[in-house]
Structure formats: C-alpha cells, structure tokens
Design a protein that fits this description.
The complex is a heterodimer of chains A (about 300) and B (about 190). By secondary structure, chain A is mainly alpha-helical. Chain A has helices spanning about 10-20, 25-65, 75-85, 90-125, 125-140, 145-155, 160-180, 185-195, 200-235, 240-250, 255-290. Chain A is built from eleven helices and no strands. Chain A is globular and about 75 Å long. Classes of the chains: A mainly alpha (about 300), B alpha/beta (about 190). The interface of A and B includes residues 191, 193, 197 and 287 of A.
Chain lengths: ~300, ~190
C-alpha cells in the first residue's frame, strides 16, 4: 500500500544542511573518519620524531668527529659505551634511585606546599596579599644563591630536597590560584547562599575545579625541580647522587661519564613528565565526560 | 518585614532599578513581574545579598536564610544528585526531597547524565531541603522555577510553593502567566 508522500525530500534537506553540496553524513560517521585520520597520522609523527633524533645525534657525531677530543666533546658512541659500563654496576642504579628519591621527595613537598598555599591565597585575598612578597622573593632569587644558603642551614643530603621543593612550589601555587580564580562565579554564589561547609566546598567545588590546573603545574614543575635538584646535588655533593657523580666527572675530566649521567637524568625526568601528562589527559577526559549533558 | 527604600542599581551606564520603594510581607507568595530586562533578577539578587544596591537602604533581612533557585541550575558537575542536595542540608533530607520530586532512582547520577528537567528538579530539591531546615527564617526565591518541568512535577512544585508560603516569604518570577493567584505582586515594569 502506498503511503502518503512526504511534504519534502528529507535527503535533499540533509544535502542542503552541509551548505557546500557535499552529501550529509551523521556526526558519528564523521567522528569515525576523524579518528581514523588521527590514527593514520600517528605513525607519521612517530617516524618524523625518530628522524629528528637521528638527525641531531648524527650532527653531534659529526661535530665530535671534527673536534676530535673526547675531553671537549665525546662522540655518541663514547657516551653510549660509558653509559653501558655504568649501567651494569649496582652502584649506578643505587645512585639513580637515591637521586630519584631525593628530588621526587622535594618535588612532592614543593607541590604539596604550592597546592595548599594556592588554595589559601586563591580563596583569601588578604592571605594572597600577605604571602605575595615571599612568593616573589622565592621566584626571583637565583637558585644557586638559595642552594648555597641551604648548605649553611641544613644537612647536605637534604639540600637537593630543599632546592627541588623551592622550585616546584611557586609553579603549583600559581596554577592552583589560577584554578580557584577560574571557578565559576555562579557556583561560588550557590555555595555561599546554601552555607555549604568549607570541607564540602573544597571537595565538591574547588578540588574538581583546580585538578587540571594542578596537574598541568605538576607537569611543568617536574622539569624545573629536576634541574634545581641535580644542581643542588652538584653543589652539596651528597652520598650516592647523580649530581655528585657529575661533579666527580668534572674533577676527573671524564666527559663521556658526565654526558652519560646527564642522559640518565634526562630520561628519568622525561619519563616522570610523561606520566604526569598522561594523568593530566586522563583527568581532562573524565571532566569533559562529566560536563557533557544529556538531552531531554 | 522586608523594606526597600529608594533602592537603585546600575550596571555601567545602564540603570536597572531606580528609586524602588517596596515593602514585603513576612510570609506569603509574592510574584515579581516585569518585562525582560526590567530588573527582576537584579531585585532578587539584591534581596539574596548577591548584589549591593548603588543607592537606598534595605531592612528586615538580618537573620534570614536564603534558598535560591536560580534561572540556571547551578549544580556541582563532579558530584551526584544526592550530594548536590546534601551539601545544603543532610543526606536524609536530600533523599526525601529528591524522591519527592521524582528522582528517587537518580540519586547517584551526576548532573551531566541527567536531562534538563531532572537537573531542574535537583536544584528545586536543594532549595526546598535547605528551606526545610528552618522555614520560618527562610526567604525562598524562585527565579523561573517551572522551566523544563512536566505537568506532574509542576503540580508538585506548586503544592510545595503554597505550603512553604504559609510559613515563609516566597518570591517567584514566572513567564508563563499566573499559575495560581499570588498574595501580592511586584510589577517592575511600572517602576
């Protein structure tokens, strides 16, 4: 049996909806295509990144060959040999472990202090003004001066902890405060009117709000923490530390070892930063999922 | 009794309220009317203490708690419907009011997974749960509360508004005409 004719051709409407004559495709199909296109691009990016690394290592090899002195600039092969020699010893891993522990403890301490101060200064304008001078001083003072001062004040094994904390805290403070500042005014008014307890405000409003800012701050602060921590180790020479080994490499003019230890620090720092960035994207995806509303 | 004398409020160069004289009863339902942009929401925000008037004085608000259903739902996105209500009262009251507005099965759902009408009902449950803690000392402000509600839930809301209006002052703005006769009307288009 023939049905009533449609008042218009729905396919035509869909074609018009694209506005440029291309056939209409539902969002799900377009999303699938976008995801496929992203997937096909990923190996290209990886290949290009690998090619970039190969290029710079090759350039380093050429430059080292031209210089011709291991003391001034060792070749990548010499550094690799030095790294392999070090990596088979238990002491290498113990040294890395202690540095990892010290600097990560410092970063964690600095992050904790930064987050608490960021929350406090973000919520209270008075405390923000009160703490601003000390934060400015901590941010502007050269890290070497602070390390030397710390050597006078505290035991040498804790100087890298202090330096890493001092470098990471201002980052987290600034990011957390920024997160608080970006909290929607509408929700602030709501919690104020409904007399929501400080604990519930923190749990329900501020923590979800500042979390992406905190993670982003952690990702950038880790690099600074590591640089300051290793510099502090070089200056304070604690027992079993990468910085101490770098210092010894300088004393014994062992440039390949200096490069090898530096490479180990870079690898550790990058791995940690990647871990934090991975956590950041996981949290961002979770929050995006929470914000997307259902239709009526 | 709440009294506003010579209240004025401007935003930049735009004057929203000018020399407003108003006396509100201690209890009952007062409908705030006026064209879009006449200052209804500004008046409600001044009464809630969220805006400070540029001129004039307000008396009679001391000691009053304000339960405010905003035009937007203003729910915390990261927590469940139950927690969104419980932050203003307690969990037992939150369960009761959510069930009263037909959300007994959606206690653990987050706002993003609720429909617009359901989110509205969570906001209403929060306001009524907060008001119920001390109704006699509460100013209940409902800015377009019927938005997104179906007939059944609108009837539940009307019933609750009339009940609370017996012990507290309820201020209501509503675009869809008179739902029921209010005890008094504030018409801002005439000011």
């Amino acid at each position: 049996m023939d049905c009533c004719p449609l008042p218009f051709d729905s396919r035509l409407l869909k074609q018009r909806a694209t506005g440029d004559g291309r056939p209409y495709r539902p969002y799900s199909a377009r999303r699938k295509e976008m995801s496929v296109s992203h997937k096909t691009k990923a190996p290209k990016v990886a290949l290009l990144s690998l090619a970039a690394v190969v290029f710079w290592v090759a350039l380093w090899a050429v430059a080292a060959g031209r210089v011709g002195q291991e003391l001034l600039l060792p070749t990548p092969a010499q550094v690799w040999t030095s790294l392999r020699t070090l990596a088979v010893t238990a002491e290498f891993w113990q040294t890395l472990g202690w540095t990892l522990l010290r600097i990560n403890a410092g970063c964690a301490l600095g992050m904790g202090i930064g987050i608490v101060l960021g929350l406090v200064t973000g919520i209270s304008k008075t405390l923000d003004i009160f703490l601003r001078p000390i934060v400015s001083v901590a941010q502007s003072t050269p890290v070497a001066s602070l390390i030397i001062l710390a050597l006078v004040w505290i035991q040498k094994d804790f100087v890298p902890v202090f330096a890493a904390a001092l470098m990471t805290a201002p980052h987290l403070l600034a990011n957390t405060r920024q997160g608080i500042a970006e909290t929607p005014q509408e929700l602030r008014e709501m919690v104020q009117l409904y007399r929501v307890s400080p604990a519930n405000r923190l749990r329900g409003l501020y923590v979800p709000q500042v979390l992406p800012y905190v993670l982003s701050g952690c990702a950038s602060a880790i690099g600074f923490g590591w640089k300051a921590g290793v510099a502090a180790e070089v200056l304070s020479i604690p027992t079993k530390a990468v910085g101490t080994e770098i210092y010894h490499s300088k004393i014994y003019l062992d440039t390949p070892a200096l490069f090898a230890w530096t490479a180990a620090v870079i690898v550790l720092s990058v791995i940690l930063e990647r871990l934090v960035r991975w956590a950041l994207s996981a949290v961002a995806a979770r929050q995006q999922k929470q914000k997307g509303g259902a239709d009526d | 009794m709440i009294e506003l004398t010579g209240v004025g409020k401007s935003f930049g160069t735009q004057s929203v309220l000018r020399n407003l004289q108003l006396r509100l009863p201690e209890r009952g339902l007062v409908q705030v009317r006026g064209a879009s942009g006449s200052g209804k929401t500004t008046l409600l925000r001044i009464l809630a203490g969220l805006e400070t008037p540029d001129t004039g004085t307000l008396t009679g608000l001391t000691g009053l708690r304000v339960a405010y259903v905003f035009q937007e739902d203003r729910l915390l996105p990261g927590v469940s419907a139950l927690t969104n209500v419980a932050i203003a009262a307690d969990k037992v009251a939150a369960r009761h009011w959510l069930a009263h507005f037909g959300l007994g099965d959606a206690l653990d759902k987050r706002p993003a997974t609720l429909s617009g009408g359901m989110r509205r009902r969570v906001a209403l449950a929060r306001a009524f749960a907060f008001a119920a803690l001390d109704e006699a000392h509460t100013l209940l402000i409902l800015d377009e509360p019927y938005t997104g509600l179906d007939a059944d839930n609108a009837a539940v809301l009307t019933q609750e508004i009339l009940r609370v209006a017996q012990t507290a002052l309820v201020l209501l703005t509503h675009h869809g005409g008179d739902v029921f006769p209010p005890d008094a009307v504030v018409d801002l288009s005439r000011s």
